[in-house]
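User: Hi! I'm working on a homework problem where we have to compare a predicted structure to a textbook description. Could you give me the structure for the chain below?
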Amino acid sequence: MLPTAIRSIEIFKLFLPLHEPFIISLGPIKEVQNVVIRIRTADGCTGYGECSPYLTINGESVDTCFVVAQYLARGLHGHDALDIAGALAIMNRIIYANSSIKSAFDIALHDIAAQQAGLPLYAFLGGKSDKVLTTDMTVSLGPPAKMQADAVRFQQQGFPAIKVKLGETLEADVARIRAIRAGIGPDHLLSIDANQGWHTADAAIAVLRALAPYHIAHCEEPIARHLFMDLARVSAASPIPIMADESCGDEHDAARLIQLRACPQFNIKLGKSSGLHRARKIVELGEAAGLTLQVGGFMESRLGMTAAAHLALTSAAIRHCDFDTPLMYTEDPVLGGICYRPNGIIEVPDVPGLGAIINEEYLRNAEKQVIE
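Assistant: Happy to help. Predicted structure tokens:
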């Protein structure tokens, strides 16, 4: 057996409470329901990965991920952990889609590979620690007064950019942004995310035009992802730059959107792309097309967000980071990992590998399966 052959894979369910429900147009999130993967190689190296499945976006839940992970683990047992492309090919032969749980395996394999190379993950991916990463902070969907209060609080906490969840009626969404601008002033960087909530291109264009006076930096996913053929028309008519999110899952989606000239920006998430290997392909396509890129996530802990932060250091085209969800947790299960500094600054670990693990206390009593 190769020293770097996969000897065992542990699969854990990770449940954690939030300070308050996180609400978007697709529905509320009341608690963290994630899956953690821990891979051990024959020579004793250990890699960690995590995913945060989302029923209405990637069609996965903590329970489907837990079951599918067992199929994937059996298929990967004995495989060389350094052959990441081969591991992804095995997983894709075992089951179609399921990008969220595949991303957790991908992150753990990259953790091992970067440790074996003696490099921080960003350097293993070809990146440099030559830019300062800052995260936005997201205002959950709700009444205008509550959203204004949250935005003001985030501004006072020093976050350089505020992201606002929208996606309801024109009148309701304009009222929300009007209230937020009244609270934070006209100049603070503000973006919006409709999460596909404006159901037609015409409806989206109407809302985007109505929001033009409020100086919005960009809008994520204004229309349903199956309407991607209409996204170019929305982009052309919108005074606000459009960023594809749910409609840009993997590199194939990215290539299609670029060919259609659908929008000038992409939001990359590891849970949509199946992990770092395929996310890098989106980055390369975006760079070549001159697009502006954002790296974000779902409800990952600092472990999953650390992987995303390493990715964000690999390209100058990645200009926005949306790494705020761990700040919504009431508990932090991660040792190491990214650190949140004043003014939204993110510090990325500079040790070999991912540089983050899950505290054993959170795994000891978790539901788990072991494949060895």
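For your comparison, note the following. The chain has two domains: 6-119+360-371, 123-357. The chain has 13 helices and 17 strands. Good luck with the assignment!
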